[in-house]
Every structure is written in C-alpha cells, then in structure tokens.
Design goal:
Elements: E1 14-15, H1 30-34, E2 41-43, E3 50-52, E4 58-61, E5 68-71, H2 73-79
Antiparallel strand pairs: 1-4, 2-3, 4-5
Length: about 80
C-alpha cells in the first residue's frame, strides 16, 4: 500500500480554554442562540454544520477563512508544533 506524508502546513489556531470564553471562529450570532443552539459551537464549511466545542479543543480556520472546525487537544498536539 502506498504511503503518504502530510505536507507542512502553517495554521493559526486558538485553544478554547474555558466554557463561554470566546475564541476566534466561535459563533456569537444571536440567531443561533434564538433557534436553540445555546452550546458554544463553530460553523464548519460542510453544509454549515454546527460542531459544539469542548474545553481544550483547538479552533482552526477552514480554507475559506469564514468557517472553522475544532480539533481535540491530543490530536492537535500530535499534528502541529509551535513556530
């Protein structure tokens, strides 16, 4: 089976450290909350899917720069290193 290596990628990411503390990419739209989405979350590029955040998750931008996705701390630290 062929092997592949992940290309070096530089990303900006912010860790969600406390419940309710805003991070870049986290939804703060009143329309989300009025429609019942009261948990901290981000909107992904995939069909505007909502993904809830958990304390410790890192939030990374999607390629379009408008949508974001969470990555669990262990996965993030095994995939990326500080610059």
């Amino acid at each position: 089976m062929p092997k592949f290596k992940k290309k070096p990628t530089i990303v900006e990411a912010e860790q969600y450290l406390a419940y309710g503390k805003l991070v870049k990419g986290m939804c703060k739209s009143g329309s989300c909350y009025s429609s019942g989405n009261i948990e901290p979350h981000v909107h992904t590029i995939h069909e505007e899917q909502l993904v809830n955040l958990q304390v410790g998750d890192y939030v990374l931008p999607e390629p379009d720069g408008k949508h974001f996705y969470p990555v669990k701390e262990e996965i993030f630290l095994n995939t990326y290193e500080p610059m």
